[in-house]
Design goal:
Layout: H1 14-22, H2 40-44, E1 48-50, E2 53-55, E3 65-68, H3 81-90, E4 95-101, H4 111-127, E5 131-137, H5 148-161, E6 168-171, H6 181-196, E7 204-206, H7 209-212, H8 223-227, E8 235-242, H9 248-258, E9 263-269, H10 281-294, E10 298-301, H11 317-320, H12 332-342
Parallel strand pairs: 3-4, 3-10, 4-5, 5-6, 6-7, 7-8, 8-9, 9-10
Antiparallel strand pairs: 1-2
Length: 350
């Protein structure tokens, strides 16, 4: 996401809030006497990229649906045992995207703290049977090479700690911008081996040009990726959209790309590109219909109580500790996306 800057005021409370998440890491208790449905990870196991699709351990195409955190430097208090229980059980989400910002008060200010925070969220999502996207949330500078050394360190540590887990996906560059596809590709071909030397199985998600629009926002399209793919296996390419800003040309690009390269929509919103303004639910539904038909997995932005339209909770919800379940604490965008995540999954096992 390309955020507006007014929420930087929240960075001042990071120190006070950062420890709250780590105090709330208990795994959810099983319901006595209940015959629980399998979790997304139990149903699907280790994911793989098969042709143009994301597939489960049985080789069947699947679609994951879930939520992204906001920056963990600003909203750790929205990521508690209770809120993650609600995401897994009430919302019935398949996947949590953990967004570790590099700049803007994020990773570069305290690598150890933000590595621990990301790892803790991975553990909490794992305990609840969800998949986890480890998002290296670089925005400005838009050249992923600017953070190459830090990315090597972060992904090495996270991959080592989670080696052997079957529920991890790595998103290695959130939204590159202002650089050529060849520059992004060269970054990917440097970072992917860092992960592969430790984890040979996890799908790796590669950001695309122009804020992960497959180049559309800078006058290009998916053809540059199709014609010059990253030299690596088990990868998918990311696409982001905000329905009120990104209209038919973007939707058409996603439709074409889905027939040519493996795509994962790791971020989208029903508002404008800053997550603000009116919700365009009709346009958003057109995207969701396409993604359902093509089994393109998706993650919505964002699971916080930021004042912007795109944050699912009403302001003050996180400080109040909920309520997390149901719709009473949700903005209209939260009600809409929760309803669509809650619809039954189709995870074929044979």
């Amino acid at each position: 996401m390309r955020p507006a800057r007014t929420h930087r005021r929240l960075a001042a409370v990071t120190a006070a809030l950062g420890g709250l998440l780590l105090a709330l890491t208990a795994a959810p208790a099983a319901t006595a006497g209940a015959s629980a449905a399998p979790t997304p990870v139990e149903a699907n196991g280790q994911l793989e990229v098969c042709g143009l699709k994301l597939c489960n351990e049985h080789g069947n195409p699947v679609q994951l649906r879930g939520m992204s955190t906001h920056g963990t430097q600003w909203y750790p208090h929205c990521l508690t045992g209770g809120s993650l229980d609600a995401l897994a059980r009430d919302w019935k989400a398949d996947v949590l995207r953990v967004s570790t910002y590099v700049q803007e008060g994020g990773y570069e200010t305290d690598p150890e703290h933000f590595t621990e925070l990301a790892h803790d969220l991975i553990q909490q999502a794992t305990a609840r049977g969800m998949y986890v996207i480890v998002d290296w949330h670089m925005l400005d500078p838009g050249d992923p090479h600017a953070n190459l050394s830090e990315a090597r360190t972060f992904f090495t540590e996270i991959a080592k700690r989670n080696k052997g887990r079957n529920n991890i996906l790595y998103e290695i560059a959130n939204e590159p911008s202002g650089v050529s596809w060849s520059r992004i590709k060269s970054y990917a071909e440097r970072i992917i081996p860092v992960i592969r030397n430790i984890d040979s199985d996890a799908p790796i998600l590669v950001g695309t040009r122009a804020w992960s629009s497959l180049g559309v926002s800078e006058g290009s399209d998916e053809s540059e990726v199709v014609g010059n793919p990253v030299r690596a296996a088990k990868i998918m390419y990311t696409f982001h959209f905000y329905a009120d800003s990104h209209r038919d040309a973007y939707l058409a690009t996603l439709a074409r790309a889905a027939d040519r390269i493996p795509v994962f929509v790791t971020e989208f919103g029903t508002q404008n590109y800053a997550g603000e303004g009116s919700n365009d639910f009709a346009m958003s539904q057109r995207y969701l219909d396409l993604m359902a038909a093509e089994k393109i997995s998706w993650v919505n932005w964002n699971f916080s109580d930021d004042h912007r339209t795109g944050a699912v909770f009403r302001p003050g919800t996180c400080n109040a500790g909920g309520p997390w379940t149901g719709t009473a604490s949700l903005k209209p965008a939260g009600v809409w996306i929760r309803d669509r995540i809650r619809t039954p999954d189709h995870f074929p096992t044979s």
